[in-house]
Amino acid sequence: MSQITEHMLRTIRFSVFAAILGLAGSDVVLAANQTKLRLGMMVTLSGSSSVLGTQTRDGFQLALNQLGGRLGGREVELFLVDDELKPDIAVQRLQGLLARDQVDLVVGPIFSNILQAIHKPVIDSGRILISPNAGPSVYAGAQCSPYFSVVSYQNDQAHEVMGRYAESGNYRRVAVIMPNYQAGKDAVAGFRRAFRGEISDEIYVPMTQLDFSAELARIAANKPDAVFTFMPGGMGVALVKQYAQAGLASRIPFLSTFTFDEATLPAQQEAALGLTGSTSWSPSLDNPANKAFVKAFEAAYNSIPSAYAMQGYDTAMLIHSALQQTAGETANRDQLAAAIRKAAFTSLRGSFRFNINGYPIQDFYQVRAIKRPDGKFQTEIVDKILTDYADSYAKDCRALVPQ
Fold this sequence. Notes:
Elements: H1 2-20, H2 27-33, E1 37-43, H3 50-66, E2 70-71, E3 74-82, H4 87-100, E4 105-107, H5 112-124, E5 129-131, E6 148-150, H6 156-168, E7 173-179, H7 182-194, E8 198-205, H8 213-222, E9 226-229, H9 233-245, E10 254-257, H10 265-268, E11 276-279, H11 288-301, H12 307-325, H13 333-342, E12 352-354, E13 360-371, E14 377-389
Parallel strand pairs: 1-3, 1-4, 4-5, 5-6, 7-8, 7-9, 9-10, 10-11
Antiparallel strand pairs: 2-3, 11-13, 12-13, 13-14
Helix pairs in contact: 3-12, 4-5, 6-7, 12-13
């Protein structure tokens, strides 16, 4: 009994001391007073694009480990599910997260078609949805929600970088090849927004396609000045390899977004060298937080982090910063949504803030694939193309975060 009393007295003394120092509501105080944060994460962990979900999960987990397994002072119980890149499976597993696991908020997914399947069920359930990657145009304008935020980008933005690059490179005829889903359509829209030349051919392929021989023959016959593509995960691995094998790399410049990165370069290797891409981040980005992250990720997972890992890490830090503002509480959705939109954390990208629609305002870069002295492959920044860039849909968003 005396031990219990003494423990209680120590807790009271510490709480009073913390309050005096202006630390009331800090992580250590909250940890003693709140239940576990039940966090649902839905990413793609199977199939040819599983590496994207794996890197997102690992980046998030690295941040969580560095924070002692707590976000905003609350111990985290992470419920991880694989959407299998199938919308019907995603909806089924989301229902498990919401009804059975009673998660406080949902993080995910990787792909825009999965996001379109789970967006409404999450919002209608009274939870907040944070996307670490998928950022379709659908929810950036008139259909925006104060309870949905995207940590990565609005899909069009990085593609606009390549549109500008193609325009500045005096390419007059460009063929495009895309996966046939929302993000592929957003890619073409973004590219067109900045490119004033002719789209000489527009090819859409199923998301499961890995053989591009027919499409590459069609491109070769079209003889464009350049090719622009967005082909994530295993599709990107296959396309880059087959493009090189077909002898097109030396004949038709290959411009891309998210087709080669640290998630796919270990498989693409030399076939990707010299290719031009665009992104909001690279391991080569020179700031202290990013350098520490890259070093820690490589040590933890023996691989170079991709933008997916960075976005997973930033997502964890965003939630941590929001819960610090709400004293760890998640029950008041409006309060939590407002705290999330403040983005009171240091992004690995450096400059980062949310626009009115919950999509980022950030910088974008031209990158190239390189081979490091240690034999590993990564992207390297060539030039900054866009500074503090906001997407084109935010002007139509009227769903303000309640204060």
